[in-house]
Known about the structure:
Blueprint: E1 4-13, H1 19-28, E2 34-35, E3 48-49, H2 63-68, H3 71-87, H4 93-98, E4 99-104, H5 110-122, H6 132-136, H7 140-149, E5 155-158, H8 164-178, E6 183-190, H9 195-204, E7 227-235, H10 236-241, E8 248-257, H11 267-281, E9 290-292, H12 299-313, E10 321-323, H13 326-329, H14 336-350, E11 352-353, E12 376-377, E13 382-389, E14 393-401
Parallel strand pairs: 4-5, 4-6, 9-10, 9-13
Antiparallel strand pairs: 1-7, 1-8, 2-3, 6-7, 8-14, 11-12, 13-14
Helix pairs in contact: 3-7, 8-14, 11-12
Amino acid sequence: MRRVVVTGIGVICGLGRNRDEFQEALRTGRCGIGPITTTDCLDLRFRNGAEVRCYDPNDHFTPKEADMIDRFAQFALVAAREAVKQSGIEWTNGLRDSTAIVTGSCVGGQSTENQGFWDVYKMGKTRVHPMTIPKTMANAGASAISQEFGITGPAFTISTACSSSAHAIGQAFSMVRSGMSDVALTGGSEAPFSYGILKAWEAMRVISPAVCRPFSKDRNGMVLGEGGAMMVIESLEHATARGAKPIAEIVGFGMSSDAHHITQPSAEGAAKAVRMALKDAGIAPEQIDYINAHGTGTTVNDATETCALHLAFGDHAKRLAVSSTKAMHGHTLGAAGAIESAAAILALASGVLPPTIHFNEPDPACDLDYIPNCPRRADIEYALSNSFAFGGLNAVLAFRRI
């Protein structure tokens, strides 16, 4: 099997509109959560979210192009453009044919879908936007990327709730490692700030009315975010042959299903995914230095993930550095695995571990080192990114510093 490296990363989210802004926010512990401005939230129990501030589609697309692509797919394409540019890929017909596109999205084109329902049921219109179906489909981002770069290899989208883009990266990793593809563009995107889906999340009563406080004793829920992250991955041989400089290496991928509950997580299921990632990477638990946790900020999730890490790492759990960057960029649902993998990779490359901000008080049920409030310099070699989704679908990615 071939070694697989990351040669380009693109990010757009509540922490910034490109990778550099994103990394700077992580390095300084800046919060991207604030009042939601793109949707009227006056009758919601919560009004905060991590929006992509000052995002103007016209900065990236012609008016006609922007009208054809939902906001979530725009994020995927904007991030893909940045990743491709950073990677230095020069497209040939042969490379386009051997490149894969694997994206993840949980809810797809919610803005378009919400507008269609509003037009029909509220405004009494008899017609909706003629591109409503292709704008709402979850694979719209993958298709837009394919058309942008003329990529004709395998292209598809995975939808496994909050693990969607982690599963996507893992699948792309397997394809490149096996030799099915030489290069892959992979990641995910989400844009959940439309009235209908916000009301649905309100009904679940898991959203904080203020900020997200992962692992802190006074945590009271998650905060939604939007955005996307894409990366160019390729075999080390391919990257070396074209003179590319890898950012990090993907070394393992683990998956599991809890077979337990549609919304309540299982420590055993999450621990199994961690063990599978370590086994796939061929590394011992003691070699892991840092974990970008799923860390949603809900009472049950954070305690369960802490328990899972104890199960997977034993005594080494106490020596792990763990943080949840969701406290900064919100829970981006299907894009979470991609954005948080980008955070883990950038931590490996820079030697600066992002903090868990808004941490006020230790919780006996969350007894690990969560890098509270302040970034930390550390010379680390291996990192994990955890994604644990509704439906009990778990995905863990393992990365190594180059």
